[in-house]
Every structure is written in structure tokens, then in C-alpha cells.
Design brief:
Distance between the termini: 28 Å
Radius of gyration: 29 Å
Oligomer: single chain
Structural class: alpha+beta
Helix content: 10-25%
Strand content: 35-45%
CATH class of the domain at 61-233: Mainly Beta
Shape: globular
Number of strands: 31
Number of helices: 7
């Protein structure tokens, strides 16, 4: 593609220079503030960190005692922190099988940490020459050792990672294709984590043996994990009940469809009926998250959707919505979104960061239709953004794996959370950066030409057959113009 250059006006250039100077000044003041010692603030750090860690992640317990073997003869070294270092014998592919026994009740999730290691190529965490790996598939099984003789497969229903290489997402560990999987290039030499949740809780207090099979089948050689650790948790990620639907409820006007409370907004009762018994709540387990869903009916109407979100601890999560047409959302009885718009439904039209309280959280959504068919979209995501993404990324690195820079970042975030002066400086920086981005986005661009480093020969093309090349020609100007300099 031809290159482009940005062509700001004099006013835009002056604005950009002003933003640069002001941002540098604010950043200097913020860094000075963060560097100041404050014993009163320092005393509260650990309590804040403990509470924040609960909000941004579940509590994980590394598997300390286990047996591990390799299908192709890879050698394993156990370390005191529960991690495993693998030494390849040159096999291009492999399957690691790890087993451990536990009497834990209600295991609800597993975490695979891919750990940096200075002794691995490019710092790992993989054994490939570029530090990468590709985890093709993860299988989990369980067996009650006291009375069962055969392993029972445990389906994995959800998986997510802190980073995914382009075209190698975490979800590919769930398919049966050997040429797909989770990988992390170019972010080698860094800590990474993959979380996968079983379809049901594992463990009832009796001894259970849990087996993991980690398969590596990349076409390039030795794309195996070189340093890793597996942990488990008994805490669930937020658990979403199936949707219950009420509607379509006929409305006299588009305004009424949006603004009228048909009952559930102030008195939510799934046993109630409406319009003289003609309408009642219906559970709809077929309404899958992450895809656009059509709603029944057409014309001017409103439909309510309700579900609960359970979490054992306070958690932050992103909720994404789409609607045709208007949408209103309430969380635990409080309105968090209201837009009376006319539009086709699409993915991710609205995004909300919410804090879920421990226990059941009540999520009510109302879609009002202005005519024709209508529908909605919903998904949740634990991968946060902005400051919350920074917090989550920092706390989701296991404490014993945090670098000095990651520890510094956590203390930085703590100061922003508890120091109003630092928080105001950061807020001003964020506002200025947003204004600067708007100016940068308004700058026109020009397409420019660039000579090839090595000019290719050019010929006269004979009409009738483009493959029949005539005499070679060189760049010049028409004969009636002066020669080129």
C-alpha cells in the first residue's frame, strides 16, 4: 500500500505541541507525588491489596504433589513453588499427563500458568527457539479412587487467557484439531495464564484423582511448554442463570413501550402474569450469550429479559449489550443503562463495567421495539479495560511471579486509589490524552508515492497479448517538455 503522511494545520500542530507540554508537566507532578513517602498510606497497602485481589481474581491453590509423565520422553523437574520445568529430548510434539489426588470439595476452575524462565529460549515460557509454545488441547478427567476403576471425562465449558497470539486463541484448546491451539507470540519472555472451568464441580470430600492431558501438536518443532504450573480454585467465576423472558407486551406508542413500567421494573416476580393472564415469564435456556438473538413478535412492543448472576465474592466484570430498538438495564434494582434509540441490533453496542456483589445479582433488561422485528445481544467479559484492566493484569499474576515492575505498578495503582491528589492528576492526564486523541483523529492525511528501492524493467505492451513485451522503456517526460534534471 502507498504510504500516508499526516498534514496538520498550523492550529492543529500548535494544539498538539500544547498537549505534549501539558501532559509532560502533569506526568512529572504525578511521578513526584507517587515517589513521596507517606507512612499513613503505606500502612494500608496490604489490606487494600488483599481486598483488590479478591475483586479481580479468584483465590488459587497450586497443586503441590503430583505425578507427571511425557508421551515422548520429555524430562520434568519439580520446583518448590509447585512449578514444573521441562527439558526436551528433541521430540517435535508431545503430550504431558499430570495426575494429583485431593479431598477438596467443589473444585470450580483450573489455572495453567506459563512461567518465564531465563534458562529457556528468549526467556520462555516455551521450548521453541523463539520462546513460544502451542497448547493444542487440554483434557480433564476424574476418578473416585475408592470405588471407581475408570476415569470419567470432565467437559470444559469455558476458557480464557490473559494474552492470545493472533489466530491462536485460548478457545482452540477445546476442539479436536491438532493444528490449532493457544500460543503467545510475540509476548514471549513474559508471564501468561490460561483459565479453564469444568462443566461441573469436582470433588465431594472423598479422595478423587484428577488427570490433565496437555497436548502439543504444532507443525513447527518443540512448541512445548517449558515452565508451567497448574492451580485450582473452589470459587466460581460469575455464574449466569438462563434467561427468563416476558413479552412481547403490546404498547400504544413507541414512547409507552420505552417509558411505561409494565410491572417488573418495580415488582419483579417471575410467578406473576400480565394482561389478564395472557403473558407470563418463560425460561429460555436456548438464548445463548455472545450471539444476536431474535425476539418474538413485531410491531410496537416491549420485552423483558431477566437472569441472575451468582458470584461468591465481589467481582468486577464488563457487560456488553445490543438492541433493536431501545434498551434499559437494571442491576439489583438500580438503573444502569437507558437508551431510547431506533437501530438494528448488533454486537457490543453498549458496554458497562459493573461490580457484582457476593451472592445472586439480579439483571433485568427491557427491549422496546419501534416496528418490525427486533432482538438483543448480551455477553460478559472478565477481561477488563482502562485502569481496571491494569489492576486485573497486575493482580492476576501470581504473587511469587511478579516482577519488580509489576510490584511497582500495583503500588502505583494503590496510590491512585487512596491518594486524592494523585488520583486528580491521573484524571487530568486521562482527559488531556482523550482530547489529544480527538485532535490527532481529525488531522487529514495525504497519500504519497515512494520509489522502489530497486527499479523493475518496464516494457511497451503489445496490444492483444499482455505477455508479448515490446521494447524496454525508461522514465522520462514527453518530448515537447524540457529534459529531466
Amino acid at each position: 500500500c502507498p504510504p500516508f503522511i499526516r498534514v496538520p494545520s498550523q492550529a492543529q500542530q500548535a494544539d498538539l505541541e500544547d498537549f505534549t507540554h501539558r501532559l509532560a508537566s502533569l506526568d512529572s507532578k504525578l511521578q513526584d507525588r507517587l515517589a513521596q513517602k507517606d507512612s499513613a498510606l503505606a500502612d494500608g497497602f496490604q489490606t487494600w491489596a488483599d481486598e483488590a485481589e479478591k475483586v479481580y481474581d479468584r483465590k488459587w491453590k497450586p497443586i503441590a504433589s503430583f505425578q507427571i509423565e511425557s508421551e515422548m520422553g520429555t524430562h520434568f523437574e519439580h520446583r518448590e513453588d509447585g512449578s514444573i520445568v521441562a527439558t526436551s529430548n528433541g521430540a517435535a510434539t508431545d503430550t504431558y499427563t499430570l495426575r494429583f489426588t485431593t479431598t477438596e470439595k467443589g473444585i470450580a476452575g483450573f489455572r495453567l500458568e506459563a512461567l518465564r524462565d531465563e534458562n529457556l529460549p528468549e526467556g520462555g515460557p516455551g521450548l521453541a527457539s523463539n520462546g513460544n509454545f502451542m497448547l493444542s488441547r487440554v483434557e480433564v478427567s476424574e476418578i473416585h479412587t475408592a470405588y471407581e476403576a475408570k476415569e470419567n471425562p470432565v467437559p470444559i465449558t469455558e476458557t480464557y487467557a490473559d494474552f492470545e497470539q493472533t489466530d491462536f486463541p485460548a478457545r482452540d484448546i477445546l476442539d479436536d484439531q491438532e493444528d490449532t491451539g493457544w500460543a503467545v507470540l510475540p509476548e514471549v519472555g513474559n508471564y501468561h495464564r490460561l483459565v479453564f472451568n469444568p462443566a461441573h464441580r469436582i470433588g465431594d470430600g472423598e479422595e478423587v484423582q484428577i488427570t490433565f492431558r496437555l497436548e502439543f501438536h504444532h507443525v513447527a518443532p518443540v512448541h512445548l511448554l517449558g515452565h508451567f504450573r497448574i492451580s485450582y480454585t473452589t470459587e466460581r467465576d460469575p455464574l449466569y442463570s438462563p434467561w427468563s423472558v416476558l413479552g412481547p407486551l403490546p404498547s400504544a406508542s413507541t414512547e409507552e413501550a420505552f417509558s411505561k413500567d409494565f410491572g417488573p421494573e418495580t415488582d419483579l416476580d417471575l410467578a406473576k402474569t400480565y394482561f389478564d393472564g395472557d403473558h407470563r415469564w418463560r425460561e429460555r435456556p436456548d438464548l445463548e450469550d455472545g450471539v444476536v438473538q431474535d425476539l418474538e413478535g413485531s410491531g410496537i412492543a416491549a420485552t423483558y429479559l431477566y437472569r441472575t448472576i451468582y458470584t461468591p465474592e465481589e467481582r468486577k466484570t464488563l457487560l456488553f449489550f445490543g438492541s433493536n430498538d431501545g434498551i434499559q438495564v437494571w442491576l439489583n434494582g438500580k438503573s444502569i443503562l437507558a437508551k431510547n434509540v431506533g437501530r438494528p441490533v448488533a454486537e457490543n453496542q453498549e458496554k458497562l463495567l459493573v461490580t457484582l456483589k457476593p451472592g445472586d445479582n439480579r439483571l433485568l433488561m427491557k427491549i422496546n421495539n419501534q416496528g418490525g422485528g427486533y432482538g438483543f445481544y448480551f455477553r460478559s467479559d472478565l477481561r477488563l479495560d482502562g485502569t481496571d484492566r491494569q489492576m486485573a493484569d497486575a493482580f492476576r499474576v501470581a504473587d511469587d511471579q511478579r516482577t519488580d515492575e509489576e510490584k511497582r505498578r500495583i503500588r502505583h495503582l494503590y496510590r491512585l486509589a487512596v491518594d486524592p491528589i494523585a488520583a486528580e492528576l491521573q484524571s487530568n492526564i486521562d482527559s488531556l490524552q482523550s482530547e489529544k486523541a480527538k485532535v490527532e483523529g481529525s488531522i487529514p492525511t495525504l497519500r504519497v508515492m515512494r520509489d522502489m528501492e530497486e527499479k523493475r524493467p518496464t516494457h511497451v505492451l503489445v496490444r492483444g497479448d499482455y505477455r508479448n513485451l515490446g521494447k524496454e522503456v525508461t522514465a522520462d517526460v514527453p518530448a515537447f517538455l524540457p529534459d529531466l534534471p
